[in-house]
Amino acid sequence: MFQKIKPFLYLGIFYLTISFILRIIFIFHPITTADFGFLDVLQIMIVGILNDILVFIITCPFLALYFLFLSDSKYQKPYGYIILALLCAFLLYILLIPNNIFKQYGGSVAEIAMAFIGLKIIVFSLMLFLPEKRIKIRNAMYFITVFLYVLLIIFNAVSEYFFYNEFGLRYNFIAVDYLIYTNEVIGNIMESYPVVPLFLAIFALAVVFTVYIYKKTKIELLNLPNIKQKIILLGAFCTLVAISILGLSFTTKLKSENVFEEEIQANGLPKFYWAFTHNELDYFQFYPHINQQVAENTFLSQFAPPALKRTIQPQKPELKKNVVLISIESLSADFMAHYGNTQKITPFLDSLADKSLMFTNLYATGNRTVRGLEALTLCIPPTAGESLIKRENNKNKFTTGSIFKSKGYDVKFLYGGYSYFDNMKDFYEGNGYEIVDRNSFTPEEISFANVWGVADEDMAKKAIQTMNTEAKSGKPFFNHWMTVSNHRPFTYPNGKIDIPGDAKSREGGVKYTDYSLRKFFEMAKKQDWYANTVFVIIADHCASSAGDTELPMDKYKIPAMIFSEGFIQPQKFTQTMSQIDVMPTLLSLLNFNYQTTFLGQDVFSKEFQPKAYVATYEDLGLIKDNYLTIISPVKKIKQYVLTQQKNSLAPEFNLYYDEKYVKGNLQNKKLIEQTISAYQSTSYWLKKNHLDR
Predict the structure, then answer these.
(1) Does 329 belong to an annotated binding site?
(2) How far is it, in rounded angstroms, from Cα 666 to Cα 204?
(3) 354: annotated binding-site residue?
């Protein structure tokens, strides 16, 4: 009986070995900034091996089915001919019936089913009509089956490595996006990594290990299991799968105060499955909550009047200035000299900051572009799960664009790539914006492009062209431009900056975007509309989100500034603020009179409370009064006391924080209530459509 499970044992040992090596790599990876003691490493390995065993058992059904259907009797007359006829009929059903079940499912399911059945017919026919070759054919099919398992094990390990290398995490929602937006993602991988050598190495390793496992286990095919053995094996397998699913429901809930420890001991596949099935989290099911009226009253107490729908009535007349909002891809604060960087990779932005209203202690709401766009467009705290931009109920919201549109502005969203990515086109068009994206370019207007879009310099020229057209209409304009060049693979035209465009370096991507912005402003200064325009320059999120805690604050700190010659006086605003406060502050500077449901604040109002909202897909945090309070599934609450640390290279600007965990009995209960109130109220209002126009 032992012979019948040898393939599972060999493949299982191979999988556990690869997973063990991967964990060792993660522990010593430069992105892993945590210090692990011996007991920590021991726990990581024990929990990790247990996770891997359970996951491997769950991923074995195809191999089990393969052995279950191994038989010589099915090729005997008349059974063989009946089975072959049924397979051919099934293929004809897929080919000839227009509305068959596979085509109803959509996508490429019908093509996949047809290819599978076609291959099955070919193999079955060979086995049926060439009985003397049956053993060789079966051996070949067994080799291919083992090869596919080995290949997937190695490929998954390599994928997890690169994902961890990028984000400091196992698979999450981003990995799910990678399957949805295959064009951009595959293109990004092709342009970022040496794909051909990498795949050749993966293939070669898979062949080597497959040959070894095949030689050790092929003897099983000489003595096929009988019906009794198949029933026993099937029963044992089903029992093990059930136990594994139950076991994973416990091991995947094992949490740690150290995020790296939690991620390294986890297995990526259950995390991917969880992310795939949890696009949006029901706040009231997964998070701590209080009485709804109490939550709303607590949250709204920061506004004047303390109500969701408020009227902003400045004492001065409105200023109908053009507004250009520039969201810069992945621009961490510490890329700029103002925050202590010594590489001189943002010379233009640093010079512009000296002439601007600069926000020196501002935090992004999340670690994805859609979160930054959500914060600047909707001005609401982030909610659990996916950004509202990627949800179905994302249209007719109260947005910055809707305010400008009500004032007679032309409103556009500009993006160098294809705006269907991340659902941006659907969201912005559904909220009254016109779209200018890669589809708007003629071939002559593109000097360089990669998978994410045209180079920022090309987009800058297109933006100027767009604004010139708008200015001729006599109407003011509000344009939101999202840059793309500072994104892996970090490729851009050669000869523009002192870092080659094919070096694929993060610093090069930052410096080229800075160069492109300089070119944009040089062109803008020559236009008649420039003197009557306000520019808002802000990052969408930081370059990395990996850290020792769930929400490492230095991975959320971003630069932001408002610039307008002769209108905005240079100054530095140093209080803690959120990405969602930027646009309400701008509207106040323009003296706009409007009704609002924005949940950000004008930072110069007397009601402003210094604070910031930071979040991942699961963890929701509030930075306030030198505390970071985090609420997470399942109704978990953590709090860290923050100790300010000044960077000696830029003491005036560079306030960072050390995060020290606060035990439950010492936690600041008032701040916990405020954190719950903010996220609970936002989730409730979105669910009830109270933030719609």
Answers:
(1) yes
(2) 56
(3) no
